[in-house]
């Protein structure tokens, strides 16, 4: 990254603040809370690292694919970059959005960063230079969620309060597809093959959109409140959903999965209260119209589908070849706030304001009932498009932030809460697992970020 650039819109600029304003210190000046305890399990400087510097609520935070960087953003409209190892220094930030940044995602190769904002745009950033490559316009109101395809051409999908999921191709100008939902879309993701998009929103359903047929393929129901997050499992067979009904659900999203796709429900947390873009070109390349606001989007593993979620509680899977709603996944009973594909691309994780995470089987021939797991225990607040969920790299654990200020980690086999991590004084809006080490990050409305190692 070039840190010698002048401060300008869309540029990476060096941070001039004193270290003590960026990284809180205790015994050391590295922001570490040093405590006696079990043997170390990661290469963090200390078991828990505290990152400070944001001037407003932090809505999102992600590790880079190589695990060397951590990026965060939120209400202050700035995108911060931190080193994961050493003193976790805040070495640079990006300027350019005129509204709060609601979600950020790295490209698979780590060369680009994608951000969704309340300024109605999706931005594409070059990580090395800090330059904003594209400012993608097309949504009519807040963009809640953005998700890149795991493989293939650099496709993006986004979900908005305007009730659409839009898909964009990095090789072409303009939006290439739009899927219309009835209510706001709060979470989207692609399935593992990128042939479908799964969406969730305030109608509590998960909708699966077939990108070849441009149709709503099927829906997964079960959540009783807004779906706030979706994430595909590492291998791509299952989908994790988080909802404001205070549960996480795991859904079988394989093509021939049983009709009842919800395989697990996890609880214990609390909630608070679609467009596609080409990263190399200007303009929306596809728009998928939803009936309600879209709050989460993601590509499937092959980038042939976009999965969206919103305030209608469904996950919609959009077929990019057919420009149609392929199928929908229902189960959430409130707004979908987050979507994330599993590492191998077979499963999708969704988070909802019904206070559950669900894992869905999004493989092409999964049974009709794609929800394979439901996890609950956390709580949402009334921030419908926050509080997302995450898979561990090996798929054995899932995590979600909570309105009760805790980070919850579940074992996907037993469905039990294995960690309930305290420390934040505000709602935990996003969590993320390190790609190679047992490290989890949490980003909160208390303006703080924690990096902590797990056993």
CATH classification class: Mainly Beta
CATH names the topology as: Methylamine Dehydrogenase, Chain H
Tell me the span between the first and last alpha carbons.
33 Å
Rounded to the nearest angstrom, the radius of gyration is 19 Å
Average residue-wise pLDDT: 83
The biggest beta sheet is recorded as:
20 strands, mixed
Note down, in words, how this protein is organized.
One of its GO terms (cellular component) is catalytic step 2 spliceosome. This protein is mainly β. The protein has one domain: Methylamine Dehydrogenase, Chain H (7 Propeller), CATH 2.130.10.10. Helices cover 1% and strands 54% of the residues. The chain is built from 1 helix and 37 strands. The protein has one helix at residues 19-22, and strands at residues 12-14, 48-52, 58-63, 69-74, 79-83, 90-94, 101-106, 112-117, 121-126, 132-137, 143-148, 155-160, 164-169, 175-190, 196-201, 206-210, 215-234, 238-243, 247-252, 262-272, 276-277, 284-289, 291-294, 296-299, 305-309, 315-319, 324-341, 344-352, 357-361, 371-381, 389-391, 397-401, 407-411, 417-421, 428-433, 439-444, 448-453. It starts with 11 loop residues before the first strand and ends with a strand. Mean pLDDT is 83; it is low at 2-9 and 11-36.
Layout of strands and helices, then pairs:
Layout: E1 12-14, H1 19-22, E2 48-52, E3 58-63, E4 69-74, E5 79-83, E6 90-94, E7 101-106, E8 112-117, E9 121-126, E10 132-137, E11 143-148, E12 155-160, E13 164-169, E14 175-190, E15 196-201, E16 206-210, E17 215-234, E18 238-243, E19 247-252, E20 262-272, E21 276-277, E22 284-289, E23 291-294, E24 296-299, E25 305-309, E26 315-319, E27 324-341, E28 344-352, E29 357-361, E30 371-381, E31 389-391, E32 397-401, E33 407-411, E34 417-421, E35 428-433, E36 439-444, E37 448-453
Parallel strand pairs: 14-22, 14-23, 17-27, 20-30
Antiparallel strand pairs: 1-6, 2-37, 3-4, 4-5, 5-6, 7-8, 8-9, 9-10, 11-12, 12-13, 13-22, 14-15, 14-25, 15-16, 16-17, 16-25, 17-28, 18-19, 18-27, 19-28, 19-30, 20-29, 21-22, 24-25, 25-26, 26-27, 27-28, 28-29, 29-30, 31-32, 32-33, 33-34, 35-36, 36-37
């Amino acid at each position: 990254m070039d840190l010698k650039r002048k401060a300008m819109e869309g540029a990476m600029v060096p941070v001039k603040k004193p270290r003590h304003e960026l990284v809180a210190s205790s015994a050391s000046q590295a922001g570490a809370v040093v405590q006696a305890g079990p043997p170390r399990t990661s290469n963090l400087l200390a078991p828990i690292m505290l990152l400070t510097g944001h001037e407003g609520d932090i809505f999102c935070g992600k590790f880079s694919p190589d695990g060397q960087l951590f990026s965060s953003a939120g209400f202050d409209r700035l995108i911060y970059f931190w080193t994961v190892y050493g003193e976790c220094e805040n070495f640079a930030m990006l300027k350019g959005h005129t509204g709060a940044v609601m979600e950020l995602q790295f490209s698979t190769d780590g060369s680009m960063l994608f951000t969704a904002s309340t300024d109605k745009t999706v931005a594409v950033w070059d990580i090395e230079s800090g330059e904003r490559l594209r400012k993608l316009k097309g949504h009519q109101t807040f963009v809640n969620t953005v998700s890149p395809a795991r493989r293939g051409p650099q496709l993006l999908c986004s979900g908005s309060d305007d009730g659409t999921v839009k898909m964009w191709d990095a090789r072409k100008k303009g939006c290439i597809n739009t899927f219309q939902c009835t209510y706001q879309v709060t979470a989207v993701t692609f399935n593992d093959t990128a042939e479908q998009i799964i969406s969730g929103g305030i109608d509590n359903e998960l909708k699966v959109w077939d990108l070849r047929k441009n149709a709503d393929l099927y829906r997964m129901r079960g959540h009783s409140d807004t779906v706030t997050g979706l994430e595909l499992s590492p291998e791509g067979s299952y989908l994790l959903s988080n909802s404001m009904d205070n549960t996480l659900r795991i859904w079988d999203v394989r093509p021939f999965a049983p009709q009842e796709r919800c395989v697990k429900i996890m609880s214990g947390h609390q909630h608070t209260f679609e467009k596609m873009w080409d990263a190399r070109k200007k303009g929306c390349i596809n728009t998928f119209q939803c009936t309600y606001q879209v709050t989460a989007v993601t590509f499937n593993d092959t980038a042939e589908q976009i999965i969206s979620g919103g305030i209608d509680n469904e996950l919609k899977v959009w077929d990019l070849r057919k420009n149609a709603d392929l199928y929908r996944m229902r189960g959430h009973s409130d707004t979908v706030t987050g979507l994330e594909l599993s590492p191998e691309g077979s499963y999708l994780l969704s988070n909802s304001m019904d206070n559950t995470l669900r894992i869905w089987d999004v493989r092409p021939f999964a049974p009709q009932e794609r929800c394979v797991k439901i996890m609950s225990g956390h709580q949402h607040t009334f921030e419908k498009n926050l509080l997302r969920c995450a898979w561990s790299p090996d798929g054995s654990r899932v995590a979600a932030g909570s309105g009760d200020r805790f980070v919850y980690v579940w074992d996907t086999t037993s469905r039990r809460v294995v960690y309930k991590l305290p420390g934040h004084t505000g709602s935990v809006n996003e969590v993320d697992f390190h790609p190679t080490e047992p490290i989890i990050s949490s980003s909160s409305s208390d303006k703080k970020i924690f990096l902590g190692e797990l056993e």
